[in-house]
Amino acid sequence: MDGRLQDRVAIVTGSARGIGRAIAAAFVRDGAIVVGVDVLDELGCAAAEAISADGGRMTFQRGDVSREEDVRELVAGVLGEHGRVDIMVNNAAVQVEALAADVRVEDFRRIVDVNLLGCVLFCREVLPSMVERGSGAIVNMSSVNAFSADPLLPVYGATKAAIIGYTKSVAVAYGRHGIRANAICPGDVDTELNRAFFEAHPDPVAFRARVEGEYPVRRIASTDEIARVAAFLASDEAAFVNGTEVVVDGGITSRIYEL
């Protein structure tokens, strides 16, 4: 039985680990042909090999999403090999913790270049071929930090808010060409980076429990839970979902306080 993404060609950035790897795996399970992109060569190759082990179709290309030349060459290569890009997932991101008064220019530029410029560059490169084919699905990874502040992530949150605005603009401009663009806004997710964040505290177990206790569902998300939303948005099941942000946060942004 064919999957809901059968034979569709997808590019997934940040595919070496975390949410990006989970999205790539979910797409492959649904029948897609996935090209993963990351700067982490060894992890990226290992992820692609593991995901393809049972007959799935995934390859890996090293690429820096903030470098215009890398993005242009990578998309051209996918188009040359497969003839099309049906799905674009802009997931690659970095964050640097600092209060607003302490933000360094070099950190600002890196966060903006990876999180926002990378998204813009990949969309710019895949859109012409999507227009030509009259179809395409773009999924951009935002965050609840787009509208709920973390005092230590002012620039990260700003890029995630910008991604929502950019996604809506793409959706409005290209909907007439059969192209949909949507954003996902996760809360905390059980990724390597989040686990490292917990481990940096004196009592990681207690700190993680404290964070999870803030969520109405009393836990954080698994990467697979975010990946399943991405697969839905990329599929025909979401054919009338366009220009919106899907919040996947266990209810954390709906909460005021508890007594």
Fraction of residues in helices?
40-55%
Shape: globular
Q: Average the pLDDT over all residues and give the rounded result.
A: 96
Uncertain segments: none
Helices and strands, in N-to-C order?
EHEHEHEHEHEHHHE
Question: Can you count the beta strands?
Answer: 7
Strand content: 15-25%
**Separation, N- and C-terminal Cα atoms:** 51 Å
Radius of gyration: 18 Å
* Strand order across the largest sheet: 3-2-1-4-5-6-7
Instruction: Supply the number of helical segments.
Output: 8
How many strands, which pairing sense, and closed or not: the largest β-sheet? 7 strands, parallel
In terms of quaternary structure, the protein is single chain
The assigned structural class equals alpha/beta
Structure description:
The chain is α/β, with parallel strands linked by helices. The chain contains eight helices and seven strands. Strands 3-2-1-4-5-6-7 form a seven-stranded parallel sheet, with helices on both faces. The longest helix is centred in the middle third of the chain and has 29 residues, at 105-133. The radius of gyration is 18 Å and the shape is globular.
List the helices and strands and how they pair.
Layout: E1 9-13, H1 18-29, E2 33-38, H2 41-52, E3 57-62, H3 68-82, E4 87-90, H4 105-133, E5 136-141, H5 154-174, E6 179-186, H6 192-199, H7 204-213, H8 223-234, E7 245-248
Helix pairs in contact: 1-2, 1-8, 3-4, 4-5
Features:
7-stranded parallel sheet; alpha/beta; 8 helices
Give a brief rundown of this model.
The protein is of the alpha/beta class. It has eight helices and seven strands.
